[in-house]
Each structure stands twice: as structure tokens, then as C-alpha cells.
Automatic annotation (TrEMBL):
Residues 19-123 form the Pirin N-terminal domain. Coiled coil: none annotated. SUPFAM superfamilies: RmlC-like cupins. The lineage of its organism: Bacteria, Pseudomonadati, Pseudomonadota, Gammaproteobacteria, Oceanospirillales. Residues 178-275 form the Pirin C-terminal domain. InterPro entries: Pirin, Pirin_C_dom, Pirin_N_dom, RmlC-like_jellyroll, RmlC_Cupin_sf. This is Pirin.
Length: 290
């Protein structure tokens, strides 16, 4: 019996820097609360330019999660937050009823010609929280528990696994972890979540049913109870999942909602500039796509 329900291949895009998009996909729109997954970079950005900067743009109905492997990004939002994120740390922003934010490349990243690489995700908020007050939370890398053993290193970002629990806030049952595996090592996916997937950032792994998953592919578990991954070579992965969403979600541009009419309202609000602005970063913005 196959242990993978789906094996998703990336769609390459350029949004000012290269990204590989895995979710949403035609065959699968979400895994647990995760409705959007981009692998950005690695990318280099010239000094004295704005290449790679993501200008102010809005969100509703979701929480964004940014996790970097290298480089740094400066986050600003309409709550007045100014927070640089570095590798292993977490920026978690709940948009709720509406927030505006920007993500720009710090000057030192450009001057040092540092590679910026990371994972950017959206998590759909549960229906009762879709219109919550926006909030932003930052966690340094050292705040999250780690596991080391038998060729495995796991950095637990959200949820619980291997007897550890992350302090990062969750809005519904959620798991997210960064995982490195030495060649020949094995890792069994946690059995505590109904929906699980793993994305191979670098390297190559096999399931215990001999299904090969190469770099840049997302494997979605069919029956993850007991699913074991074996590293063919030194590999870096992320593991993500949680419980199924409490109903269908609609995605349109940067907006997520269980109600189509709410998305239409958000589109009109952005066109008419009724979203809050970002202190110190309000001279430009990304217009609503046609």
C-alpha cells in the first residue's frame, strides 16, 4: 500500500526573487491549516537597489509564517512592528480582519551578498478567528526546542513531536518542524496529527514503501501512522500538518476566507485604500492584480 497520497512538484515563479510554489495545488489545496507554501531562494540581491523587496500589501483571514535557512528579511506592518528575522527564528503574523505588511532585504544582506533562502507559509485561521484583531509574534531560534540523535536534528517550530512542545502560538492543532537527516538515517513521522506532509529542501529521501522523494517535492502522507523516511543522502526537510480545516477556504490574491463575499470586500477595501498603513513605509504599495 503506498504511503504517499500525493507527490507534488513545484511551480517556479519569480516575484522579484525565485520561488517554488507547492501549495495550493490542483489535487490538494491544504495540509492541516497550511493553505500556501513557497520555498524562496536562495537568492542574492545587489546593494543600493530594491530588488527582492516586497512592497506593502494586505492580508485577511490567515496567519503568515516565515522561516529562514539563510540571510535575513526585515518585516514591517500596520501594527507598527519592525522586526528582522534571521535563520531559525519565526515571524508569525495573524492578519485576522486585516493587516498590511512589507518584507524588505536589509542593507547588510545586500552589502554582504548573503543568500536569502527560506519557507513562507499561510495558515488559514479557524472560522471563529477569521475576523480577530491582527497580531504579530516573533520567536528567536533559541526559544524552540530541538532534538538530536541517530543522525537526526529536528527544530520544532510549532506543535508537539518527540516529547517536545514548541512555545510558538498556534490557532488550531498545527505541526511545523525543520529537519536535517544524515545519509542512512531514519525519521518516523509523528502520529498525533490527521494530516501530514514533508518537503525536501535539499537531498533525497525514500519512504519505507520505497517511494523516492527528491529535492523541491512535497510528499503528502496517505496513512502517516508509522510512515518512516530514510535519507538517501544528507538531506534537509520540513514537516508540516495538523487537523483538517473547519470547512472550505477561498483564496484570492493575498486574501483567505471561508466566505467569498468577504474576499470581495477585502478587494474593494484595498482598491479604495481602506486598509491600515505601515508607519514609515506608506509611500508605495502593491496594487490589486487585475
Amino acid at each position: 500500500m503506498p504511503s504517499l497520497q500525493h507527490l507534488l512538484h513545484p511551480k517556479a515563479k519569480d516575484i522579484g526573487f525565485p520561488v517554488r510554489r507547492l501549495l495550493p495545488a490542483v489535487v490538494r489545496q491544504s495540509v492541516g491549516p497550511f493553505v500556501f507554501l513557497d520555498h524562496m531562494g536562495p537568492a542574492h540581491f545587489p546593494p543600493d537597489t530594491t530588488e527582492g523587496d516586497v512592497r506593502p500589501h494586505p492580508h485577511i483571514g490567515l496567519a503568515t509564517l516565515t522561516y529562514l535557512f539563510s540571510g535575513a528579511i526585515m518585516h514591517r506592518d500596520s501594527l507598527g512592528t519592525v522586526q528582522e528575522i534571521t535563520p531559525g527564528a519565526v515571524n508569525l503574523m495573524a492578519a485576522g480582519k486585516g493587516i498590511t505588511h512589507s518584507e524588505r532585504m536589509p542593507a547588510h544582506v545586500r552589502q554582504d551578498d548573503a543568500a536569502v533562502e527560506g519557507i513562507q507559509m499561510w495558515l488559514a485561521l479557524p472560522k471563529p478567528l477569521e475576523e480577530m484583531e491582527p497580531e504579530f509574534l516573533h520567536y528567536p531560534s533559541t526559544a524552540m526546542p530541538e532534538f538530536n540523535g541517530d543522525g537526526i536534528h529536528l527544530h520544532l517550530v510549532m506543535g508537539s513531536a518527540l516529547g517536545l512542545t514548541s512555545p510558538v502560538k498556534t490557532y488550531a492543532p498545527t505541526l511545523f518542524a525543520a529537519l536535517t537527516m544524515k545519509a542512512g538515517s531514519q525519521f518516523q513521522l509523528p502520529a498525533d496529527y490527521s494530516e501530514l506532509a514533508f518537503y525536501v529542501v535539499r537531498g533525497e529521501v525514500y519512504t519505507d514503501q520505497d517511494e523516492k522523494v527528491e529535492a523541491f517535492n512535497l510528499g503528502i502522507a496517505a496513512d502517516h501512522d508509522g510512515l518512516c523516511l530514510i535519507a538517501e543522502q544528507d538531506s534537509t526537510l520540513i514537516v508540516l500538518g495538523g487537523e483538517p480545516l473547519d470547512g472550505r477556504r477561498f483564496l484570492n490574491w493575498n486574501f483567505v476566507s471561508s466566505r467569498k463575499e468577504r474576499i470581495e470586500q477585502a478587494r474593494e477595501d484595498w482598491i479604495n485604500q481602506r486598509f491600515p498603513t505601515i508607519p514609515g513605509d506608506d509611500q508605495e504599495y502593491i496594487p490589486l492584480p487585475r
